[in-house]
Amino acid sequence: MTQIKNIGVFTSGGDAPGMNAAIRAVVRAAMYYGIEVTGIRRGYDGMGKGDFFTMNRKSVSNIIQRGGTILKTARCDEFRTPEGRKAAYEHLVKNKVDALVAIGGDGTFTGAKVFGSEYDIPVVGLPGTIDNDLVGTDFTIGYDTAINTVVDAVDKIRDTAESHDRLFIVEVMGRDSGLIALRTGIATGAEAILIPESKTGLEGLLNRLEFGRKDKTSRIVIVAEGEDAGGAFEVGRLVQEKFPNYDTRISILGHIQRGGAPSCMDRVLASRVGAAAVEALRDGHRNEMIGLINGEIAYTPFEHAIKHHQGIDPNMIKLVEMLSM
């Protein structure tokens, strides 16, 4: 059993619904074991500037239902340099922080991996990203809330599409991963989905519009923002160019996908992995992401979590094609 006395907790990268639930779980689990907690504002940027404060039960009261992150988040170019990481470490030593819980995604864990290898301080991570693109957990914190936000928005868009016999091209988040687009496309009965992992999406869409049913009163196409065709505006331009008879509209959902109160699933997931992070540090774990696989806590080294993104199940793509006839 490792003698951890003071855990520093921070959020980094893009915010995700459920991050506050994770912070709450870390603080309360640490206090359960008699460990102090130091909050670090604005991620690695705050770590390098010494923006620390002591957290207690009251610090995390009434936050489990709130979106965003009470610890704030920011990008930090300085932390990419040895000098920036050295300054961060000196602030940790000054504040007697002897372990870290990093809540974030790919970039957060990349920084944590480098920092943990340079300095003798145990670091574990919690998967907080709406993209669900990390290996080592079935779902990431924020993903369930984000896809439900998308489904709610697309359902509303379809009402307008039906009323005007329109084709709507809806762009969702997913710069490097099409998991949000894929799952929400199935859930909303989309005509087609265009995702970075599938290079035949645009061709398939154009073929379907040309040879598919002509009696549909509405069509919804879901496009991941990282899709090679150039996103919703470029897809819309190509569709309008080839099919000028279609009344085509573009809708960019943008950052509404990151906001809002976290779903029950995200609150429970965040609570479980947050408490498990404290226990992992007590048990001597370091440089690992704490996730949930098949309902059980799982530990994945940072280098595996950040190098290997979740693959797309081809059966899911086939399902979209099958059900959109």
Radius of gyration: 22 Å
Tell me the total number of β-strands: 11
Number of domains: 2
N-to-C span: 58 Å
Number of distinct helices: 11
Topology pattern, helix = H, strand = E = EHEHEHEHEHEHEHEHEHEEHH
Helix content: 40-55%
Indicate the proportion of strand residues: 15-25%
| CATH class category label of the largest domain | Alpha Beta
CATH architecture of the largest domain: 3-Layer(aba) Sandwich
Could you give the order of strands across the largest sheet? 3-2-1-4-5-10-11
Keywords:
325 residues, alpha/beta, Rossmann fold, 2 domains, four-stranded parallel β-sheet, 11 helices, 42% helix
Task: Explain what this protein looks like in three dimensions.
The chain is an alpha/beta fold and 325 residues long. It has 2 domains: 6-142 and 262-307, Rossmann fold (3-Layer(aba) Sandwich); 145-258, Phosphofructokinase domain (Rossmann fold, 3-Layer(aba) Sandwich), CATH 3.40.50. It has 11 helices and 11 strands. It has helices at 19-32, 43-49, 82-94, 106-118, 143-164, 179-187, 201-211, 231-242, 264-282, 302-307, 314-323; strands at 6-11, 36-40, 52-55, 99-104, 123-127, 167-172, 192-194, 219-224, 248-252, 288-293, 296-301. A hairpin with a 2-residue loop joins strand 10 and strand 11 (296-301). Homotetramer. Catalyzes the phosphorylation of D-fructose 6-phosphate to fructose 1,6-bisphosphate by ATP, the first committing step of glycolysis. This is ATP-dependent 6-phosphofructokinase. It is an enzyme of class 2 (transferase).
